[in-house]
Amino acid sequence: MKKLAILGIGAVVLLSMPIPASATVLEGSFSGRADHSGGLAGSYTAGETYTAYQILNTTQVSPWYPWNPAFEYTLRITTSVATYTSGSLQTVTFNAATVEIWEDNTTAADFANNATFSDGTLVLSGTVPNMVGERINAFGFPYGVTGDLFLNGGSGLANVDPQCSNNMKLNDFINFQIPLGAWPDADGYEEGYDSKFDCPDLTGTEASTWGRIKSQYQ
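Above: the chain sequence. Below: its structure as tokens.
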């Protein structure tokens, strides 16, 4: 009888454990270039400014914002370098970054005129307080940049999918070998810069008990 009692308690404990829920990961990706005041691609100095200029990729799978195909969307990330460590593993940390996404259908974004990346209507704005990049210093590997984007402004803030209500996960690549050839490029940019912002699954978990499960079948 004692063994049966223990098994019964174990079953209740298992049914009371949180059951992970699943949801589609919502995405938004941009591509462009980056400029920093140091002038050397992939090498940074504490205190120098860093600005990325990017354009929304035309194909979005499971987007977290209702992008209007009649408009162009441009993204600008503005920050400064906090620390830089060289060696076999290179690490760059940034001070809190400002993120802006602009919408317009009048002036096409032009890397020769970076003012075209911040014209039109500011639809989304926010900050990335923990932006960090790392790369293995071999074979031209790019920097993998991570962080958390917290949106807090812009005329389209209410249109962001509720799944992104806490924050988005930043998954970037700073690649200073694209296009092929020496950097800076003809327009003075030091790096190529691709960004992807993913909304984490916020459906959470829900605990259940044997009594709750039985009640669903009565």
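Residues 1-22, 205-218 have pLDDT under 50 and may be disordered.
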